[in-house]
């Protein structure tokens, strides 16, 4: 009996939503001599099935798209931010991201390293982001929450499983939780903006110690050097699954114009996003070569190791594929293997690699007439970002010390959280 009711549910749906049309259909059937008992489910005439399919499609077409919101400072954008937004997008159909204002960051966390313009460029450049709200508040106030629900049509507000507390100790997402419109994702372990600042400050101390050693007669304590470096080693544990999650999992078409660009892409910043966007516009498929840590090695570098840098590049919406550990020189074999049509390089790039000046990495591409120098849209570099922190290191050391307390508490109380 239940199965019979379910199989004929289209009839009751039709009677409820379209009584005049359905009545006319039954009258026409009666005049044509078709038994109305058929409409109880007897018979094989195709019209009811056609009506059922049409009606079902009409109902499905009205399905509301789920819009989710996630906010953050996104200062020193890293793969942890990208993975958080990837998880948030998986909880809905459209992802709206709020970028917290400079003033709110200063009031709640300390001075930001990147400007609002730079942070907006980074967030907008992520493949999972649909819309961006600039100058979002640090805390979800009732006024802003109503604006999200009514103006931006947000269904759920998302945040990680790590606590986000205001200076007074209250939960920044308490209101969203209270109204039942809050969803939680898993924090990406092994990286944070605080950790990256720590790596840069640690590199600064190591560099200064080396300089002092070169100007002094006493040898540097090797144990102290190792302890200093170990204090800020990356805790990221790369897995093949994470790489797949970030990948487009698609190769170029048979006639695609493949564009190749390479570099360190250390401490992924707005300059990287803009040059990748410009490179992608020159073809159908953008292949990005990411140098090994050995190639990148120099003063302060690499701040992020190879797998961390690879994920940051893969998260960019303009990138189709990456070569993890690309060679310094673009060879003829490499061009043939990947069917590269154009090799490009920006006018602004780091020049601190040990291989700089030894050979022209683009000699083959130039001889083949497929090399193009691109005017870099921004002058920002990894070194210039690091220098901002070093120039204001006292303020960032104070910020890191404060954040380190909450980080330690989080890890002490940490429990397993399912998720991606």
Automatic annotation (TrEMBL):
Gene3D superfamilies: HUPs (3.40.50.620). It comes from the Eukaryota. Pathway: Phospholipid metabolism; phosphatidylethanolamine biosynthesis; phosphatidylethanolamine from ethanolamine: step 2/3; Lipid metabolism. GO terms for molecular function: ethanolamine-phosphate cytidylyltransferase activity. Residues 69-198, 260-351 form the Cytidyltransferase-like domain. It is an enzyme of class 2 (transferase). Keywords: Lipid biosynthesis, Lipid metabolism, Membrane, Nucleotidyltransferase, Phospholipid biosynthesis, Phospholipid metabolism, Transferase, Transmembrane, Transmembrane helix. The chain crosses the membrane at residues 20-47. Pfam families: CTP_transf_like. One of its GO terms (biological process) is phosphatidylethanolamine biosynthetic process. Its EC number is 2.7.7.14. Belongs to the cytidylyltransferase family. This is ethanolamine-phosphate cytidylyltransferase. It comes from Citrus sinensis (Sweet orange).
């Amino acid at each position: 009996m239940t199965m019979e009711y379910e199989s004929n549910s289209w009839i009751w749906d039709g009677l409820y939503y379209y009584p005049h049309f359905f009545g006319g259909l039954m009258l026409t059937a009666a005049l044509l001599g078709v038994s109305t008992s058929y409409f109880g489910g007897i018979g094989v005439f195709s019209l009811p099935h056609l009506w059922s399919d049409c009606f079902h499609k009409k109902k499905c077409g009205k399905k509301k798209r789920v819009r989710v919101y996630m906010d953050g400072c996104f200062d020193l954008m890293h793969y942890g931010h990208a993975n958080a937004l990837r998880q948030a997008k998986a909880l809905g159909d459209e992802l709206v991201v709020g970028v917290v204002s400079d003033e709110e960051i200063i009031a709640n966390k300390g001075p930001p390293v990147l400007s609002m313009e730079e942070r907006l460029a980074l967030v907008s450049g992520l493949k999972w982001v649909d819309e961006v709200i600039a100058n979002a508040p640090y805390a979800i106030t009732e006024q802003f929450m109503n604006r999200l629900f009514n103006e931006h049509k947000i269904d759920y507000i998302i945040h990680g499983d790590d606590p986000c507390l205001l200076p007074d100790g209250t939960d920044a997402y308490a209101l969203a939780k209270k109204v039942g419109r809050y969803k939680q994702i898993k924090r990406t372990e092994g990286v944070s903006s605080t950790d990256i600042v720590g790596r840069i400050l640690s590199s600064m101390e190591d560099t200064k110690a080396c300089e002092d050693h070169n100007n002094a007669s006493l040898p540097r304590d090797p144990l102290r050097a190792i302890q200093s470096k170990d204090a800020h080693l990356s805790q990221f544990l790369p897995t093949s699954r994470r790489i797949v999650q970030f990948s487009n999992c698609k190769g170029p078409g048979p006639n695609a114009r493949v564009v190749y660009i390479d570099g360190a892409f250390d401490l992924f910043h707005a300059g990287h996003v803009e040059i990748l966007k410009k490179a992608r516009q020159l073809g159908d498929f953008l292949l990005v070569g990411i140098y090994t840590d050995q190639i990148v090695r120099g003063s302060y570098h690499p701040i992020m190791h190879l797998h961390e840098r690879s994920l940051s590049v893969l998260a960019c919406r303009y990138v189709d594929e990456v070569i993890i550990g690309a060679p310094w020189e673009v060879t003829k074999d490499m061009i043939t293997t990947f069917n590269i049509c154009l090799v490009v390089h920006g006018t602004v790039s780091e020049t601190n690699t040990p291989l700089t000046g030894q050979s022209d990495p683009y000699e083959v591409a130039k001889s083949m007439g497929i090399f193009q120098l691109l005017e870099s849209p921004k002058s920002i570099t990894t070194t210039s970002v690091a220098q901002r922190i070093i120039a204001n290191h006292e303020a960032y050391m104070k910020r890191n010390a404060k954040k380190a307390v909450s980080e330690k508490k989080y890890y002490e109380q940490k429990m397993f959280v399912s998720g991606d």
